[in-house]
Recover the amino acids of this structure.
């Protein structure tokens, strides 16, 4: 059994500008309208890094920053877990195209941006954060894998951990083989359940289960959940948006899912 | 932290298949580096390539996973009876109580590189049979290992470039400590592909000849491929004399630059310090350091400053990348296995290809093999994006 307090939430996705918009959509089934993900500009990075950072970095940093601001935390002090099913598809496509040509003159910036931990690296540079940082991938199970890693870090003694789960659409021709339609990201700032005296907000308890994942009643949100790995977090976000606690089963591996119980915090602080 | 027992381990690299071949090559001072003749690559560099991967066959039900990286994983799992030992322990604990944590950087992207050369001239589509999920995706190798070993516990790929398969050790340790699992298969698998060969070349980080870590004239790294696996369990109260333990792991971020380490080795030093603290070990108690030692001017200089600041200049150390090449995301696990072999046999491998030690790197860098009883080894791994990890391994007796 793993546990944590949720102290900050960040969301960005198709028709979901931030956590407030996401919570509103989750609270009123039928109210969600899917539009293209609006990716905000980066403000935090030094100019040189800002020029080199692709969409994937802007998406991951946007939700990370929202969760940190929501919790009024200091980004420099937070260990972080970045998790993504595919990283930077635009960059991967450009590299493969160049390598298929005759010259093969690939850009050094494209190469260092091709590492799966690029967003994690830019996060550290942006905030001057020297705390441990990891970057994970578990294909469609990437959100669940990130959540378990973050909770394990708290169980191992970390006071707080920032979880950032993000996925971007691939351009053609890879898009035909990995049908992620748009960018989507979810960040949770989780604080140790052992720090109960100071921690506030909803409390999560997470365990493995064989039960099927919780489906969303809103058809468009349910489609989003099934299409983008980071959106597999939506049933949990739905409980958090409700503000009164509850229970959700999240998709994880094909043969294993995550059972999440939420005990509402005083006045449901994590709800906007 | 909770000490873990390396219940079993194996490594396959350019040096050979399995622990005995690896150890024999290290004892003989043999390097696997050869002029690059990999695929269609035309680069003036050397690589440590594993022969015979084209003959490796995956089990029939797992054919969808067929690619160079998973063939390498398959080949490595068959060495040293690793497969059988994992099955034995999974029988003891239950398949669901054994996690899988694998580090890779490029997974099966070679398949995608090849597919991009065979796109439909009219539509640009990739050729039929291309399978993104089971080859290209970074989770492919972890999923393959989990299915190949019939395990059913939690699984994840750690993908922090060249520190990936060092960071799988603390990731597994945390989950064992939290009681979610009883055992873990950790490891690293990274295979040659054009992305890394041309990528490191574009950054002017590949040496034309074999890499020469800590040499005054060092001029870059040499890429290799490898797979290494370790079966970890909680350390028993009474250990065997031959047992090797993971006493501590330390992680940090540079927060400096995407492809260059902090010049003073700030992140490297804090990762090493964190590993010592987690293990409750003083720097003087470390008998040998297996350096990250890539042979790039920047890495070796930053690492030397970090090691010097913590350990002074007397602790014997070396890089084994002159023998194995830099196996990128497999380096952490490969060098953890080399460190375990060092603890077991007393071999501190001398660094190969280094002719003239750089006087500005004042460490006790071994140029020849040394034999002595060693009780504690530190192994360093640092990656792009400033992701650092150090492991502290020790004899149990």
């Amino acid at each position: 059994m793993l546990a944590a307090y949720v102290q900050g939430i960040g969301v960005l996705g198709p028709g979901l500008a931030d956590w407030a918009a996401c919570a509103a959509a989750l609270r009123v089934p039928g109210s969600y309208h899917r539009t293209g993900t609006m990716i905000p500009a980066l403000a935090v990075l030094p100019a040189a890094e800002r020029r080199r950072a692709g969409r994937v970095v802007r998406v991951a940093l946007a939700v990370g920053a929202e969760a940190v601001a929501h919790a009024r935390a200091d980004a420099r002090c937070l260990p972080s877990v970045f998790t993504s099913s595919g990283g930077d598809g635009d960059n991967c496509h450009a590299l493969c195209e160049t390598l298929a040509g005759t010259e093969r003159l690939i850009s050094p910036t494209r190469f260092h941006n091709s590492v799966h931990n690029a967003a994690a690296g830019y996060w550290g540079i942006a905030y001057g954060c020297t705390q441990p940082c990891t970057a994970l991938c578990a294909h469609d199970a990437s959100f669940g894998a990130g959540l378990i890693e973050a909770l394990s870090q708290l169980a191992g003694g970390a006071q707080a951990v920032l979880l950032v789960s993000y996925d971007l659409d691939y351009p053609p021709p890879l898009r035909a083989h990995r049908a992620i339609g748009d960018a989507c990201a979810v960040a949770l700032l989780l604080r140790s359940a052992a720090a109960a005296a100071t921690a506030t907000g909803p409390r999560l308890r997470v365990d493995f289960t064989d039960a099927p994942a919780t489906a969303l009643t809103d058809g468009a949100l349910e489609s989003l959940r099934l299409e983008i790995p980071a959106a597999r977090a939506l049933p949990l976000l739905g409980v958090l948006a409700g503000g009164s606690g509850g229970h959700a089963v999240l998709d994880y591996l094909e043969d294993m899912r995550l059972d999440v119980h939420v005990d509402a915090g005083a006045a449901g602080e994590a709800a906007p | 932290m909770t000490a873990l027992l390396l219940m079993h381990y194996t490594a396959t690299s350019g040096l050979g298949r399995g622990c005995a071949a690896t150890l024999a090559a290290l004892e003989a001072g043999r390097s696997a580096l050869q002029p690059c003749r990999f695929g269609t690559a035309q680069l003036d560099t050397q690589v440590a390539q594993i022969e015979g991967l084209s003959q490796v066959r995956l089990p029939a039900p797992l054919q969808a996973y067929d690619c160079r990286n998973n063939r390498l994983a398959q080949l490595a799992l068959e060495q040293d009876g690793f497969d059988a030992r994992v099955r034995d322990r999974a029988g003891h604990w239950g398949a669901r109580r054994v996690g899988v944590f694998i580090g890779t950087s490029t997974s099966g992207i070679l398949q995608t590189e090849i597919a991009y050369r065979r796109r439909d001239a009219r539509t640009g589509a990739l050729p039929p049979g291309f399978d993104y999920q089971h080859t290209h995706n970074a989770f492919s190798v972890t999923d393959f290992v989990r299915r190949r070993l019939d395990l059913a516990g939690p699984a994840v790929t750690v993908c922090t470039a060249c520190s990936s398969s060092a960071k799988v050790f603390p990731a597994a340790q945390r989950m064992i400590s939290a009681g979610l699992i009883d055992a873990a298969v950790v490891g690293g698998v990274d295979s040659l592909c054009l992305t890394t060969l041309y990528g490191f070349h574009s950054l002017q980080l590949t040496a034309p000849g074999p890499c020469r870590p800590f040499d005054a004239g060092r001029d870059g790294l040499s890429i290799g491929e490898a797979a290494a696996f370790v079966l970890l369990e909680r350390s028993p109260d009474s250990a065997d004399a031959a047992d090797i333990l993971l006493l501590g792991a330390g992680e940090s971020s540079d927060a400096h630059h995407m492809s260059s380490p902090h010049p003073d080795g700030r992140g490297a030093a804090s990762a090493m310090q964190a590993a010592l603290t987690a293990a409750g070990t003083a720097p003087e108690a470390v008998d040998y350091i297996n350096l990250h030692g890539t042979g790039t001017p920047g890495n070796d200089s930053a690492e030397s400053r970090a090691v010097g600041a913590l350990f002074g200049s007397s602790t014997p150390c070396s890089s084994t990348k002159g023998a194995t090449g830099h196996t990128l995301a497999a380096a952490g696990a490969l060098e953890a296995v080399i460190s375990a072999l060092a603890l077991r046999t007393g071999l501190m491998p001398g660094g190969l290809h280094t002719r003239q030690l750089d006087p500005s790197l004042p460490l006790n860098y071994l140029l020849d093999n040394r034999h002595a009883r060693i009780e504690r080894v530190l192994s360093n791994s640092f990656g792009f994006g400033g992701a650092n990890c150090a492991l502290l391994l020790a004899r149990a007796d």
